[in-house]
Every structure is written in structure tokens, then in C-alpha cells.
Amino acid sequence: MLETKDIGYWYDHQANALYRNVNLQFAEGKTYAIVGSSGSGKTTFLSLIAGLDKPSEGEVLYNGRAINKIGLTNYRNKYVSIVFQSYNLFTYMSALDNVLTAMAITNSQHKGDKEYAIDMLSKIGIDQDMAKKNVQRLSGGQQQRVAIVRAMCCDAKVVVADEPTGNLDETNTRETIELFQELAHAQGKCVIIVTHEPEVAKMCDETIELKNKEFTTKSAIKA
Ligand SMILES: Nc1ncnc2c1ncn2[C@@H]1O[C@H](COP(=O)(O)OP(=O)(O)OP(=O)(O)O)[C@@H](O)[C@H]1O
Fold first, then answer.
1. Which of 32, 93, 108, 143 is the most exposed place for a label (fewest CB within 10 A)?
2. How much is the pLDDT for 219?
3. What ipTM was predicted for this assembly?
């Protein structure tokens, strides 16, 4: 579904490239963990496949089409959901309005379907009363789950997440990754997570390690 073709990236000079000739494939229905030391370029890689930045060389392909041909803004709006460590919810809105707004902005097939949004939120333990309160009244773990439900309610097939469990305790981390698994396994999405936590990587279907400017796919390690 998503493929990098000989991509390379450098901020200033080619000689200082973070990596070059990266050829990776990401399938729908699977979760991927990208691991590697700090500063190796994981976040940068995520921004390339999410269409937030362009590779210095090579192409990112979505279902065989170069994303710059699709148009980066068009690609991001239609095909990608992004989950951040800092949740990136609209802080002045309720959880319900956050989900409804995302469905409206992305023109989801569930656009305007309040009952669907309420039902999805209830699946992560946010009842109707709580769903209508300002999102800042929820705990960090709950806010991150709202951010994931928001991705679930949108049609985008690619979900990228940058350290989504960075602010969460062990229990919330596990629940969050289980939701990502559901997103991939039940909804057929392609979920790509940057993480420095080995427990998170273990729960994903595949781990890709970025080390010495090379990406290596590790065999699936099941928790
Ligand atoms: N705008 C920029 N201009 C120049 N260099 C940058 C810029 N943004 C990031 N870098 C450098 O590029 C390298 C890769 O950064 P990136 O954030 O992708 O790494 P990372 O693997 O995600 O790190 P971490 O795990 O610490 O978040 C780092 O050395 C960083 O200092």
C-alpha cells in the first residue's frame, strides 16, 4: 500500500544525509514499529511518508502512485491520519466534537454521524457524559485514545504515530497499542509507529530498526 523507492534525505548537504536508498514496503492490515537511536531520523522518516515533507531524492508511493503526483496536501487529507505524542486534540472542544470535526474535515463516510462517534468513544471507556465535557478534563491516556478514535472514524488508510505512548503509563500504553492493532487488523489500515519503547515494538507486527543510516526489517516478534 505504501512504499519508499530509493528515498534519501538530508537537511543541508548530501554528504550529511540521514539515509539514502531506502526501499521499504508497508502493507495494509499491519502495524509497524520504527525504532532507532535518538537523532537517527525516525521522525523525519515519518514526515516523509505522511507527506509533511519531501524526500531529497527518491519517491514515496501510495498504491503505486507517487505522492507528489497525488499532491501532498491532497494525499494527507485523504489518505493519512497522524497521531502525535501531544495528542493534538482541539483543546477548547469536547471529545465528541473533536471526533465529529475530524470526520467533517476529512469528509469521512461517517461525517455527521453523532451516534457512530458516541459509540466509538464508548468503546474506549468514554461515556456520553464524558464525551461532551471539554477534552482537557480527560486523563492523558484518555486523550490519546480519543486521538486514536479520531483516526478510526476517518477513512484514511495510513495511520502514522510519533511516540504516541511517550506520555503514558504501562497500562495506558498497552491499551493504546491494542487500539492501534484493532485499527490495522479490524479496519485494514496500515499503522506505522515511531517508538523508543521496546514493549511497544514487541506488540507491533513488524519492527524496522534505523541504525547506522540503514533501515532493517526485523522478523515479527509477537508479545
Ligand atoms: N529542521 C532541521 N534542520 C536541520 N537538522 C534537523 C532539522 N530537524 C531535525 N534535524 C536533525 O536531523 C536528525 C534527525 O532528526 P529526527 O527528529 O528525525 O530524529 P529522531 O530519530 O526522530 O530522533 P528522536 O528519537 O530524538 O526524536 C537529528 O540529528 C536532528 O538534529
1. 93
2. 64
3. 0.93
**Of 160, 215, 195, 209, which Cα lies nearest the Cα of 20?**
215
Q: Which three cell numbers stand for residue 196?
A: 523508543
**Confidence at residue 31, expressed as pLDDT on a 0 to 100 scale:** 97
Q: Report helix angle 140-152 to 170-185, nearest 10.
A: 0
- Whether the CB of 41 sits within 6 Å of ligand 1: yes
Could you tell which of 14, 22, 34, 43 is best to mutate to test the pocket of ligand 1, judged by most ligand atoms within 8 Å of the CB? Answer: 43
Which distant-in-sequence residues (6+ apart) come within 8 Å of 2 by Cβ?
25, 26, 49, 60, 61, 62, 158, 190, 192
Site to substitute for ligand 1 among 12, 42, 52, 85, most atoms within 8 A of C-beta = 42
103 Cα to the center of ligand 1, angstroms: 31
Atom of ligand 1 nearest to the CA of 45: 18
Burial class (CB in 10 A: 0-12, 13-18, 19+), 12: exposed
CATH 3.40.50.300 fits 27-52+72-218, yes or no: yes
The reply to whether ligand 1 has any atom less than 6 angstroms from the CB of 47 is no
Domain spans, the chain = 27-52+72-218
pLDDT digits (tens, 9 = 90+) for 171-201: 888 988 998 999 899 999 999 999 999 999 9
